[in-house]
Amino acid sequence: MSSRRFMISSRNIRDGYASFNGDLFNHMVRVLRLGTGDGVTLVDEAGIEHQGIIDQVSREWVAVRIEARRPAPATGDHGARITICQALPKGEKIDLILQKGTELGVHDFSLFCGRRSVARVREDQLAAKLERWQRIAAEAARQCNRCSVPAVSWSPSAAEAAGSTAQELRLLLWEGERKQSLKSALADLGRPASVIVAVGPEGGFDPLEVQQFIKQGYLPVSLGNRILRTETASIAISAILQYIWDMM
Ligand code: SAM
């Protein structure tokens, strides 16, 4: 079996060894039960892969002897970069969306406060929330052996989230769309280099938000007659696009 891959900071590497404590130590030693002599692949922020052998394990530290290094094989360049533009849902649903979207190959998450979002983020809470959301994405990326961590960003409104769009294809998952299905919208389109998908909160999109997204070139599409929970719609679209564009 190819050795397990872990994302690290190049700061962990010194004099031919990489050493870790904290989350990465727990994941390697306690969760995966790796030990002395096991091979691991460490990918740093510059995209360099360090092949190594676990050399020492103490109560809180693990040391890896680096045996070889090479540029990490380009990943994700075979498919579209998927951005989920997600209205903040209530409670911990965002944890599920970040975790499952990361496992399903989402490139990054653009979160925003929808006009009908029940959850609100005060200015003084934002830094801590962004850090927590980014940690969830990093943990999910580590668990599924991704060598890239999706970035998580925040906009105070749908208008600002829609306005900062640079993706080639823009989709608005709109519960009010009655004519255009996702399937018909994508039927004549090839695989784009990048796609962003807007998903509303539990209360849905309000008409002004729908207009704002459409003005920014978003295609409103339906996922069928059933009304899906926001987390279901967000996770489903991440999987559907991966499948349609042969990215699984
Ligand atoms: N409150 C809305 C209603 O009752 O019509 C439902 C909003 S739904 C719970 C949350 C979000 O999931 C929607 O804003 C939309 O982005 C997406 N969604 C849910 N079902 C959908 C469908 N059938 N087609 C397109 N998008 C859907």
Description:
The strands form two sheets. This protein has a six-stranded mixed sheet. Strands 9-8-7-11-10-12 form a six-stranded parallel sheet, with helices on both faces. It is built from seven helices and twelve strands. With 248 residues, it is an alpha/beta fold. Helix 2 runs parallel beside helix 3 and helix 2 (93-103) runs parallel beside helix 7. The chain folds into two domains: 4-71, Ribosomal Protein L25, Chain P (Beta Barrel); 81-246, SPOUT methyltransferase, trefoil knot domain (Alpha/beta knot, 3-Layer(aba) Sandwich), CATH 3.40.1280.10. Strand 7 (81-87), helix 2 (93-103) and strand 8 form a beta-alpha-beta unit. The mean pLDDT is 91. It has helices at 22-31, 93-103, 123-143, 158-163, 182-187, 207-215, 230-244, and strands at residues 4-7, 13-14, 17-20, 39-43, 48-57, 62-71, 81-87, 108-112, 151-155, 169-173, 194-199, 219-221. The protein binds S-adenosylmethionine (SAM). Residues 173-175, 199-200, 202-205, 222-224, 226-230, 233 line the site of S-adenosylmethionine (SAM). The site of S-adenosylmethionine has 18 residues, from helix 7.
